[in-house]
């Protein structure tokens, strides 16, 4: 049986996390620099569409996710970051739908 698109996406997220975590220091956690590289390399349009390209956004995201304050992001903390990004993008998606609907129906 083949993986579904969602299963494949989840596997790719896990693989990506470990690929970037292994770049320096602890191979099971992301440093701030590793997180910046991961997001910049893998979701550039996503970050730009959200207006999140500025370095301070990633730093704030890192600090909010680092629950144990060890200056590293473990996989569980990384899931918090993914949740925040998906939530922000979901809101953007609804704004785009609304704008498209309003344009189509001459509401602007």
Layout of helices and strands:
Blueprint: H1 5-21, H2 32-42, H3 44-49, H4 55-65, H5 75-104
Helix pairs in contact: 1-2, 2-4
Report on the structure:
With 108 residues, the chain is mostly helical. Helices cover 69% and strands 0% of the residues. The chain contains five helices and no strands. It is globular, with a radius of gyration of 16 Å. The N and C termini lie far apart (49 Å).
In short:
This is EF-hand domain-containing protein. The chain is mainly α.
Average pLDDT: 88
Query: What does the main sheet amount to?
Result: none
| C-alpha termini separation | 49 Å
Rounded to an integer in angstroms, the radius of gyration calculated over CA atoms is 16 Å
Q: How many strands in all?
A: 0
InterPro entries: EF-hand-dom_pair, EF_Hand_1_Ca_BS, EF_hand_dom, S-100_dom, S100_Ca-bd_sub
Keywords: Calcium, Metal-binding
Pfam families: EF-hand_5, S_100
Domain EF-hand: 58-88
Notable traits:
69% helix; 5 helices; S-100_dom; S100_Ca-bd_sub; calcium; single chain; mainly alpha; metal-binding; 108 residues
């Amino acid at each position: 049986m083949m993986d579904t698109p969602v299963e494949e996406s989840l596997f790719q997220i896990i693989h990506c996390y470990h690929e970037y975590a292994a770049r320096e220091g602890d191979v099971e956690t992301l440093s701030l620099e590793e997180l910046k590289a991961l997001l910049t390399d893998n979701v550039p349009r996503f970050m730009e569409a959200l207006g999140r390209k500025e370095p301070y956004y990633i730093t704030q995201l890192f600090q909010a996710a680092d629950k144990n304050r060890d200056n590293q992001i473990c996989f569980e903390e990384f899931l918090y970051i993914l949740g925040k990004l998906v939530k922000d993008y979901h809101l953007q998606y609804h704004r785009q739908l609304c704008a498209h609907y309003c344009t189509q129906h001459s509401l602007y």
